[in-house]
Design goal:
about 40% helix; 4-stranded mixed sheet; alpha/beta; 6-stranded mixed sheet; globular; Rossmann fold; 2 domains; 8 helices; disordered N terminus; about 240 residues
Length: about 240
């Protein structure tokens, strides 16, 4: 029962926190967004960004997403512009976006730089800590004119995290958890990530030891040796 509770809590926290993000290199965001300046054709290059956009009620403004974006279900029907690790610049341009949101990973940096040089508005977010999530949601709310929705989402997430944290502290032994972010090649979440924070908030311990990479690739041997009691992986 303990293991089942652990899986449910971690998965639940993941679903409501979507992405911990902060500005790494971005467009300037005004204090208020005039309706004429709101982006109406948004491209998301990461599943977690896609979830935030839908959560803020920007369904109609989203014109394309990464092929990895499959939640909420409505994201599946959106045009695709390559994978998270290999965005397709031509497909992005063909979507005629007025805002492209990327993550700071090296695989997306060159695409973001190219689009910026071509004059496209690019917002690059960095994932590190859960606390940064709240700032990111509010910033996205600012640039899209969804201020109130962003404030409500932040409050809801904080309440859920607080509740789950209280439940987790009642359990002493921490279960070793392996969080898979990509199946082929096998890539997992390391210690210096917001995912690691989620695992610890849920009362678990990351099965992966400290690594240089935040999301390292691991071998089958490393998978066995890490001693994970719970493995969370994308469907």
């Amino acid at each position: 029962m303990k293991k089942l509770w652990m899986i449910l809590v971690v998965a639940f926290v993941c679903s409501i926190t979507v992405v911990a993000a902060f500005y790494h290199r971005s467009v300037s965001v005004p204090n208020s967004t005039d309706s004429l300046n709101k982006p109406v054709r948004i491209v998301s290059l990461a599943p977690n960004i896609t979830e935030i956009l839908f959560a803020l009620g920007l369904d109609e403004e989203i014109v394309a997403v990464s092929s990895n974006s499959d939640y909420p279900p409505e994201a599946v029907s959106k045009n695709k512009v390559g994978t998270f690790w290999q965005p397709n610049t031509e497909a992005i341009i063909a979507s005629r976006p007025d805002l492209v949101i990327t993550l700071w990973f090296e695989q997306q940096k060159s695409v973001a730089d190219s689009l910026s040089r071509l004059g496209y508005q690019v917002l690059t977010l960095k994932i590190d800590k859960i606390e940064e999530l709240f700032t990111a949601i509010q910033k996205i709310g600012d640039v899209t004119g969804k201020h109130l929705e962003a404030e409500g989402l932040v409050m809801d997430i904080k309440n859920h995290i607080s509740l789950n944290e209280q439940r987790a502290t009642s359990d002493q032994r921490r279960i070793k958890v392996l969080w898979v972010v990509q199946a082929e090649p096998l890539r997992v979440a390391g210690r210096n990530t917001f995912v690691n924070e989620l695992i610890e908030l849920a009362g678990g311990e990351n099965a992966i030891s400290h690594t240089i990479d935040q999301y390292p690739q691991i071998s089958t041997e490393e998978l066995i040796v890490c001693g994970a009691e719970v493995i969370i992986q994308p469907l």
